[in-house]
Amino acid sequence: MNHDTIVALATATGNGAIAVIRLSGAGAIAIVNKIFKGKDLAQQPSHTIHFGTIRDNGDILDEVLVSVFIAPHSYTGEHVIEISAHNSRYIVERMIQLLIQHGARAAQPGEFTLRAFLNGRLDLSQAEAVADLIASTSAASHQVAIQQMRGGFSTILKQLREQLIQFASLVELELDFSEEDVEFANREQLRVLIAEINDVIQKLIASFERGNVLKNGVPVVIAGRPNVGKSTLLNTLLNEERAIVSDIAGTTRDTIEDEINISGVMFRFIDTAGIRDTHDIIEAKGVERTRAKMRQARLIIYLADPQQDDVDEIKSQIAEVAQLDVPFVVVVNKVDLLKQDKLEALRAIEPLFISAKNNVGVEDLKYELLRKVNLHNLDAEDVLVTNIRHVDALRKTEGALQRVLAGIDSTVTSDFLAMDIRQALHHLGEITGSVSTDDLLDNIFSKFCIGK
Ligand code: GDP
Ligand code: ZN
Fold first, then answer.
1. Is the ipTM of this complex over 0.90?
2. Structural domain of residue 159, as residue ranges?
3. Model pTM?
4. CA–CA dist 89, 72 (Å, integer)
5. What are phi and psi of 158, to 5 degrees?
6. Are the C-beta atoms of 48 and 38 separated by less than 8 Å?
7. Where is K(+) bound in this sequence (predicted)?
8. Cβ-count burial of 417 within 10 angstroms (0-12 exposed, 13-18 middle, 19+ buried)?
9. Given this model, what pLDDT does residue 249 score?
10. 20 to 30 A from 377, CA-CA: which of 141, 210, 309, 361?
C-alpha cells in the first residue's frame, strides 16, 4: 500500500448539496481520525458510515458522514475514507487544508484511478473506461463504457494472451535445445491458434469504427445548394432537442447544441458554422474544402429543393454526392410547395419528402439516420473498441502475428518466431497495462480530473 495519503474533492464544484472529500493511502484512517470527533475510525469495520464532526482545534468546521473502506476492499485497493460534508466552498477548502496539515497530500489528476490500476483493482483499459463512463452523454456511449469498465474487452484480451504465452514458452524452450533441432511447439497448432487470434483482433479493429462514433457522436453533414433549407432543417432538429434540454435555449450556438440524441445515439453535426454561414456546400468557393468536410462525415444528408432545381439537375447532384463514397440520405425539402406531378417525378429517386420549416417528415428522417448508421439495438455483449490507443496496439499485434505466420511458412528458426510472438504479446499487454511505461500512464491519467 502507498504510504503517502492523497486527498481531493471527489464531487464537482458547484451548487450541489453535498461534497465528498476522498482520501486514499496507508494513513487515510489515522489522518481523518485526528480531526474527526464521534467515533474512533480505526476501530470500525470496512464499508461502514459514521456520523460526527470535523474540528479544527476546538472549532466545529462541519457535521459530516465518514465512510470507511479498509484495504484492499476499496476503489484504490488502499485504505479509503470518504467524508460527505455540506457543499460550501469554504468548508471544502478548509477541510482539505486541514487534512493536508495532518499529513495528506493533494492528489494529482487521475491519481485515485492510477492507484487502483497499480494495485491491480482495474486494468488499464478498465481505468480508461472509468473516464469514458463519467464523460458519457448518451445511452450508447454509456453502454460501451460500462461494458469496457466491467472488463468485457479485458477478458477477451487476457484469453488471447494466455494462449499465446503458452506457445511462446514452448518455442522458447526450443532455444535451449538449438543444436538438436527439436520442436516442442507444434507449428500447425500454432498456425491455427494465430489465425484464430488474428480473427478476433481483426473484429476488434473493425469494431472501432462503430465504437468511435458511439463514443464521440456520429458525424453528419447537411449538404445541398444555397437556400434549399439546410439551416432550417438543422434548427428544426435542434429545436426539438432543446425542448428536452431546456437550459441551453437562448445561449449562443456552440458545439454542444449541434449534438442531437436520437434514440440514445448521439449525432454530431460537424462544422455546422460553415453550413450556416456559407449556406451552401456544393457551390461554395472552396468546393474542395467542403468536399473534404463531407468525406469526414459518417453520413450525409443531401437536401434538394425542387422549387430551385428540376428533377434532372437533382439527379446529377446526387450522382456527385454518391462519388464521395460516404453513406447519404437524399431528402427533398419544401414538400409543402410541391406540385403533384413533380412529386411523382421525384419518386424515381426514392427520396424522403420533408418540410423542414413545418416539421413534416423530420421524424422519418431521424429514423432513417438511425437505420443508416445501424448503431441502435446494440447487443449488450458486443465488445466495441472505442479508444484510439487500443486500436493502435491491436494493429501492431496484428502486424506481429502476420510475421509469426510468415515465419512458420518459411520455417524460420525458433528464436525469430519467439521474438515475433513476444512482440505480439507486448502489444496486447499494452492495452490492459500488463506492459506499461511511466510515460504511457502519465499520458492516460493526466487526462483525468483531480479527484478521479
Ligand atoms: P440554406 O441556405 O440551405 O441554409 O437554406 P435556409 O435554411 O436558409 O432556407 C432558405 C429559405 O427556404 C428560407 O426562406 C426558409 O424559410 C425556406 N424554407 C426552408 N424550409 C422550408 C420548407 O419546408 N418549406 C418552405 N416553404 N420554405 C422553406
Ligand atoms: Zn443556411
1. yes
2. 127-211+387-433
3. 0.65
4. 31
5. -60, -45
6. no
7. 227, 246, 248, 251
8. buried
9. 34
10. 361
